[in-house]
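Fold sample X.
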Amino acid sequence: MPELPEVETVKRTLNALITGKQIQNVTVRLPRIIQRPDDIQAFASMLAGHTVVQVERRGKFLRFVLDGLVMVFHLRMEGRYGLYRGEEPLDKHTHVIFHFTDGTELRYTDVRQFGTMHLFQPGEDLLLPPLKKLGRSRWHLLLHRNGSRKLSREKAPKSNRFCSIRNMSSASAIFM
């Protein structure tokens, strides 16, 4: 599983590469990666025509904020994204391809096939799994007294309270 700094690096790289690109269509080669909606054709058709506004990170999840939708991804063990020209050959472990109107493709590859993708209406992604299970970022908890009080009331040892994924979303993988 990628560590938090690696996920942050992926987020920054994707922001530089795909922000402003419009999705022409989507090819799903391994349907079980798509968790929401459960209809693969609905997933692909809902994304067609949308533009990537920015890529954000919430814990180890990536949020692709589009103009009117939010995609939530988890790379799991070995998931990777790469931006390619459309005519470049596909890797045998490429499972989802986002075809952009400029002829480039964002390809998701995952040898172990553990990654997940979820599609939501804006704001809905934070209220439903998988992001609903995450707490606020540790920086938010440190900067706001209510978060500090919440942590101080728990009965677990301090290190467990501070690093619990239920209390914050940016804990290291060692605690997950």
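Fold sample Y, listed below.
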Amino acid sequence: MDLSAGPGRPLRALELRHLLTWHIHQHGTLTVRQLIGLLETDGFSTLGRPSKAVSDALRWEVGRGRIVRMGRGRYAAGRVPRTTAGRIRLRVERIYAGEATSYWAIMPVMPPPPGQEHLPLDPPA
């Protein structure tokens, strides 16, 4: 598994989801490829395969109704409550200012130690 990021500041988790949601609400219906292009144009990247990272982030937002899936790889704006929209806008402003806006934005991605790739979720009783 390749966890390396492309050129630019890597985004993940909440930062990536909010930036993608913001772009879709600003530009209308977009494809995954167009979203990746917007991220790269703005100087950002994702960890791993960009299309997978973007699709996973959008799946979360589709589940919340903020984004609507229009077809394979095409997404449109959904309904965002006013308070949530304000939080998204504030986070996007902080991302473009270069600030780390969440815990996951500053944590390094470390692969598991050799031999521990598939540890059980619960400790033995």
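Sample Y note: The CA atoms of residues 3 and 110 lie 9 Å apart.
Also: The mean pLDDT is 82.
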